[in-house]
Amino acid sequence: MAFIGLTLFLAGYGLGPRMASVSGEVKKASGEMMGGATVVFYPAEGETVSFKTDDKGQFQLNVPVGLAKIAVMDDKEATSLDMSPAAVNAKPKVVRIKPKYGTPESSGLTCNVGQQKDKLVLVVD
Asked: Is 34 inside any structural domain?
């Protein structure tokens, strides 16, 4: 009897949520591809998953199946700890992706992972 209980325990141990591959792209409404952006999936179950887009704004990652909220951040907006005169006097960074896309609550972006048929296209204004 103890053997059956241990077997059932081990069979269930380590089984996390089912995963599915999601591929897509990040672009502006104008069509400009957003290379260097970070895409973060916040699934209802399982761990948060993030990926940096390639130069063409493309990404591919494995995400737990189910509804996920999504945030998109521009890595080029990241603040630098460089306090040299050159860095302090540098031109302000151009904001390519509005801050509203930086949190899953304000972005309005979602995906039903495992149900999408085509490439996911995330359009940021």
From this structure: yes
Q: What is the 3-state secondary structure (H, E, C) of 54-104?
A: CCCCEEEEEEECEEEEEEEEEHHHCCCCCCCHHHHCCCCCCCCCCHHHHCH
Residue 6 is assigned to a structural domain of this protein:
no
Q: How far apart are CA 2 and CA 9, in angstroms?
A: 10
CATH code for the domain of 55: 2.60.40
pTM of the predicted model as reported, rounded to 2 decimal places: 0.74
Q: Are the C-beta atoms of residues 97 and 34 closer than 8 Å to each other?
A: yes
Would you say residue 96 lies in a domain? Answer: yes
In tens, the pLDDT along 68-111 reads: 999 999 875 444 445 556 655 555 556 689 999 999 999 999 99
